[in-house]
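REQUEST ID: PR-0412
SUBMITTED BY: lab tech R.K.
PRIORITY: routine
TASK: structure prediction, single protein chain
INPUT:
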Amino acid sequence: MLDGACGTMTRAALASLIQRRGKADANRVLVAMVTAQQSVRYLEITEANPTQEDFAWGWQLNRVAGLI
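STATUS: complete
OUTPUT:
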């Protein structure tokens, strides 16, 4: 889903992951991976633009920590 769209290839990859690893574990790992990437992205934003640091706590609390 690098292009931001959830198309047939993304759904096929998810189905394969679930078949190979089981639904519960596949879901846990997938959510953890997406959450980690989201957290890193917010850090990149604040490192590139320090004026965004005031928002970083809220992003992490409301968008990242809320998924865990």
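NOTES: The radius of gyration is 15 Å.
REVIEWED BY: pending
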